[in-house]
Amino acid sequence: MESIIEVVVGIGPRLAKCIFHIMESHYTSKVANLRDQVGELNNAIRNMRDRVDEAKGNGEVIMDGVQRWLESATEISRRAEDFPNVNRDRANVSCCNVQIPNLVSRRKLSREAKQMVEDLQREIQAAQGFNVVAARPALQTVIAMRGDYEDFGSRKTILEDIMKALQDRNVSRIGIYGIGGIGKTTLAKEVARQVEKAKLFTEVAITTVSRPPDFSRMQREIAEKIGLDFRGLESIPARADRLQRRLKEEKSILIILDDIWEKLDLIEVGIHLENEGCKMLMTSRDRDVLGFMGTNQNIRVDDLQDDEAMNLFKKIVGDIVEKTDFMRLATDVVRECGRLPLAITTVAYALKSRDDLSVWTDALMQLQNSAPTNIDVALKNFYPSIKLSYEFLRSAEEKSLLLLCSLFGEDRDITVEDLIMCSVGLDLFPNVHTLAHLRIRVKSLIVRLKACCLLLDGDRGDGVKMHDVIRDVALSIASGEGGMHSVVLKKKEDCRNLKMKKLKDSKVLSLLPYSNFDQLPERLECSELELFLLLSDQRKCIPIPNHLLDESKDRLRSLFFEQANLVSVPPSFHSLQNLQTLRLRGCVLEDVNFIGDLKNLQILDLSVSTIKQLPIKVGNLSRLQLLNLKGCRDLKLIEPKVISNLIQLEELYISEYFDKWEVGEVDVSRKSNVNLAEIENLPQLTSVSLRVPDAKTFPKDFKFSEKLERYRILIGDPLGYLDSTGISRSLLLNLHERSQLTALGLESLMKRSEGLLLDGLIDVKNVVYDLDREGFCDLKRLHLRHSDGVQYIVDCVDQQIHPHKAFPVLEILRLSGLRNLERICHGKLPEDSFKNLRQVTVWRCDKLKNVFPLSIFKRLHSVDVSDCEMMEEIVGHVRSEDDGAVEFPELRSLHLRNLPKMVRFMSWSEAEAAGGSSSVESPEPLFGEKVI
């Protein structure tokens, strides 16, 4: 390379000076342009992160392309930002202790800067192409729910007929009909499972129609399954139009409409199928309804045969039936149940583990003598059996919880939080004094009610549902015994029913507005009301009349509003002095000062509301145990001393959008915000959810309490997605040094976490050894990203270092941008390590040569490996005893992308496993003959 002196001698001082100026200006302008483009890309990254955070807050799944763009764009931005500093020595040359521009290097650096600018612009342009960043997660319960299907001979024939009809080109709409509780829904779900297993259709979507039909929910459930986003569309017609246009693109889809009560206009909903390969399966109690829906073939589901009914009963109650006296009673009990699966199941679970002959005799007499009044004719066959199951519940608590569940609307997911909040207001558990204990009690009762087949698994998380027949019977019991009523509001005239005598004496009232209902009565004439629920799934908010609660204000203890407009707060709200639970979820709120007057409040839920600030008066609630501000995207101010004054607070959930934590001492001269020290000083706190964008916000010597039992803590805005469904303890951290974990008291929380996302750690080499030598015994989901120091996830070469099994309950593993990761597992793993692992994603781990050994890989359900420069094989060395055909029976999804060095799916010899040459003289099949 020519030196500066040679250039100067060859071209003369004046010309050299001119060239210096031109070259330096050229280089300077390129670097300046680079900085400008970095700024634009960083803005795009921040905007995308905001969109991603919003989607996560709504429980949506982030699209893979978005995640890859964020990680790629962040990496390119980081390299571009470092470019001037990293290349400072290349850009200059020392001459007589003076730094002089190096012309040749600067020319090359200018070209590199230009290329980097193009890379930045490409990423910026790519960001503009993401009109949608996430979608609601597809519901998997259709396939997962297998426990309630019995392969009866009579059902086998029906199932075969349905499957034949689905494959008949001349049949586009199939109907299944039979009385309630006969097993239509169970049969439809089994059809869906078999259809997906046989791959007869590319998509299977199921939705429950129920009574009255909720078009909005139906549209949402089908859209979720096919990945359609209704963002920005509020009205049912607008969503129907988008759904219809989307379904026209489907060449092969099966839509299942369960529990149709009346003729539906499918065009109005947006699910009118036109393509030849698309079909519809419908269930109804009425064959004529199916005829109105245009079915080509209708299949009847009859009650069970005598032997099938008895076998079902025996399977549940056990061998006690074989005793002569019990067998005689069992025969009569099954006969009284009308050979209906739902009735038999509920009674059998009520009698299970009861070996007293008198109990069985009493049960039979109750079935024979139960004669309900004022009950729907369709329920008469079920009322005795379900009422018996209710009576046989072991405690008043179980009964009360079941009746509460019936208030929440047909086919609605009922959460543990729903039941906890109702329980507090009604004082159902007087001997339970903490929310943590109450949560455990409610969950245990749910388990019991599921075991009795009175509750079903919900669609998400730990929620539950009720079979519509059981709900109808439970509502009948609730109205007769507990003064509990649920009223569906479809039109203004329905409000007149609220003046009926039985409703006026209600202690518990649930109003369920559907469709376009938008006008509540001016006044509820319910002076005995203790619990009032307004449960709306509508997009628009219902205005609350000023005098709605005037007559109820003295006794009301629990108030639930969903999607209500409370811009103008009714005067009576200030007088709700006995109120213990207030839930204003998804409501339009402005001034919430009135809440500070409710001195007996124990639970306050303002989640997903429009609240902008939490005023100082809320700090007056000295009895408050739970404060929920999740999803409040407009929340900007939590006044100082509000949180710290809530000394009884056990559960605190701060909006993930709130990031205005005060640093240092509060400045009284301006409008200040809450300081994290207020959270540290809550003595009863056991559950917390919050986001802190910058670790520097934490006060000196701050530590999270080790008493925390449930938490979701985000620190430093980590980039990446961590699904928190079904887990109660998770950390999402963007920290650079292990010492920060210690400084913030996070080490003990990390060891107990079920979900963990670590972003940016630079001084961690061996994850297990450096972070938790006990092997992360509770961790179910791990996402490790952009931690350049990581060489191994588990290094077991030295067994003295790792005496424990590693990740024994881990289900999901994501490794992203670990540039120095050499092996996930190094050395022989302790037994039971990774034994529950099912899903693995590896992205941009450039030194990694394989993923997992065969022993672990054979258990995996989903594998995604992409952009790994040195990846040679997916499965590590197969031992000699495995040197035969290898099956992967659990593998459902395998994605391999951009792996330039990959030559085989798995290695078959010690030489290959030891890292021999990856080159081959002749191409070989990727999988070979031994992989099945």
From TrEMBL:
Belongs to the disease resistance NB-LRR family. InterPro entries: AAA+_ATPase, Apaf_helical, At4g27190-like_LRR, LRR_dom_sf, NB-ARC, P-loop_NTPase, Plant_NBS-LRR. GO terms for biological process: defense response. This is AAA+ ATPase domain-containing protein. SMART domains: AAA. One of its GO terms (molecular function) is ATP binding. Residues 170-322 form the AAA+ ATPase domain. The lineage of its organism: Eukaryota, Viridiplantae, Streptophyta, Embryophyta, Tracheophyta.
